[in-house]
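Task card 7
Instruction: Convert sequence to structure tokens.
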Amino acid sequence: MTYNSLLYLLVFLPAVLLFYQLVPARHRPKVLLIASYIFFCSISGKLLVYLLLSTLSIHYIGLWLSYSRKDYLVKEQAADDKKALKAVYARKNRGILWFGIGIQLGMLLVLKYADFFGGNINELLKLLSSPVLLPEFKFALPIGISFYTLQAISYLVDVYYQKIEADDNLGRLALYMAFFPGLMEGPICRYSQTAEALDAGKPLEYKNITFGTQRILWGLFKKLIIADRLNMLVVTVFDKPNHYGGVTVIAAAILYTFQLYADFSGCIDMTIGTAEMFGVTIPENFKQPFFSKSASEFWRRWHITLGAWLKDYIFYPISLTKFVKNLGKSSRAKFGKHMGQIIPSSIALFGVWLCNGLWHGTGWNYIFFGLYYFTLIMLGNLFEPLIQKLTDFLRINRNSAYYHVFQTVKTLPIIFIGELFFRANDLASGMKMFGSIFTGFRIADAANGTLLNLGLSLKDFAVVFAGFVLVLIVGILHERGISIREKIAGWNIVARWGFLYAAILLVIIFGAYGSGYIPAKLIYAGF
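Output:
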């Protein structure tokens, strides 16, 4: 059962909405929790035990942190040496925190990364002619483990820093961890963003239902009409990295980028729309990423909740370590203010992008993908003063629309190259495909029908093009702060319902399903 399946849309979601509305308000969170566990079990079955273990561990470790803090406040009143007592409890609480984080990361590392790290260590041992090799294990992965693990860690860290109070209500915490709309692909929510709304048991409202339905339909439009239609071409090219020339590889990289966006953002639309039906607002995960003017801005607009998580829980903690702060001071003294900022921030940035790559998957191409963006962003920060001087010398207005268009256009190839390596079956395949852009580039392939022999007809390309033009128009309106849904809400009832039925028919008529198509599995559900 996935968000775009008929079972979810026509059976599961309506049933949950019905039961949710029928029961008293105090029991509605229980309906959501039971529905979330049913949804999880429909995909991962008995692997639910890992989600339960993660939930139970953060519940009791959060309470442990809270008790330790209260114990310290009691003992502080009678302590002769308050500074020494504070140091003792600081060490104790750090130990509790790291114990809790260790449980979460331990499950993730064993279940998701044991095969990758074990395999690579064995390859190294073989090179060293070692007679002993590590046993290799491959575990079944519970759905959403990469997402709910980050939510669990953020909860513990926020409790530790007293940004939130430890929740003594296990059911509320369990629902925060398992809420079914965000279970497969996020967004990565913080406890403070959703827990209270989930526990409120708000009654269903007409506006929430209609707005949620619109958002789900928009997600289905992107998923079924664009992402699934492009899947045949993407699979054909990327599964044969040695078979196609540069023009075809470039087309595949561009179209895969659009497919990934349509698939992932479409799923997020369905997620946000579903949550909205229950009166729960979860954070946006995309903000018109193809309008970005740099690689760093792209990641502030793409998978926003992951970027925010990495900034808060990786970048800042590394930046605030004694070593990095001392390095910053010495760098400023030796190399000046700019390098004094670049050198220490690059260490924290490296940690962010290494984690970003590893979070996405267990392959060297994912690590390369992370370090690719690390290098680009670091170089952008490094040369920013030089670029500023150059544009000032050439009297270029960096705030002009023309310069912004230039920046956007030069950023797009950076994005396409990154996604080429991201989608490649492995790093070697990605390198071969990237190399073919320069060694096997045949401009004739763009006009001789090669692109029409990859699983998509001219009609398919026309539908994809029209679909993405519509996505572009909607993006431009959103970029200008125009709420399309609020505009639709202002129409009369005939126009509103006519629009809704037209949208449903559009998805049914132009959706890519049936013979001749290979619908893509929700891509980020695999991470």
